[in-house]
TrEMBL record:
The lineage of its organism: Bacteria, Bacillati, Actinomycetota, Actinomycetes, Pseudonocardiales. It comes from Amycolatopsis echigonensis. Gene3D superfamilies: Tetracycline Repressor, domain 2. Pfam families: TetR_C_36. This is TetR family transcriptional regulator. InterPro entries: Homeodomain-like_sf, TetR_C_36. Residues 72-183 form the QsdR TetR regulatory C-terminal domain.
Amino acid sequence: MSSSGRDAALRVALKTFNAGQRVEVNDLAAVLGVNRVTIYRWLGNRDTILAEVVWGLGERTMRNAYAAAAGSGGTRIANAVSTFVRQTLGHAGMRYFLKNETETALRVLTRSEQSFQLRLVALVEELMTIEQDAGALNTGDLGVHDLAYLCVRVAESFVYTDAITGEPPDPDRAERALHYLLR
């Protein structure tokens, strides 16, 4: 596998996604002057490509949100995840993806075979462990992993509200719920 080819394909997919356009294997192949099989060999199927693109954005967004978050312990985690929700909902590519490719988005973002959600839970768990090791977070009997999972699920439920219940996404409700959970 060509690492430079894979990286170039991911850059094109990211640029397309960020522009609020549909990411297609045929289009990636055409831009890079290769065939579809090469794209599949480098990156996998369309869902896998989308999961990688969204994960790259999501990881950077969450790490930056945590670095900038005020407070410590549960407050800092709630602030970071709330910022993540706001920035996710504010991203043109994510808005397009969630609105125009709802079923694909939910599959890519929540199904374990695409690993986005698993990686996001692991990242929140990592950040919670930092707070716990600093003595600022006590997860009680729940444990760090389960609390991280709950935080991600709360965030998801307010990001995907439109697809789940038909209500508009509401980052303020997510923030209140996260602060309540992590108080």
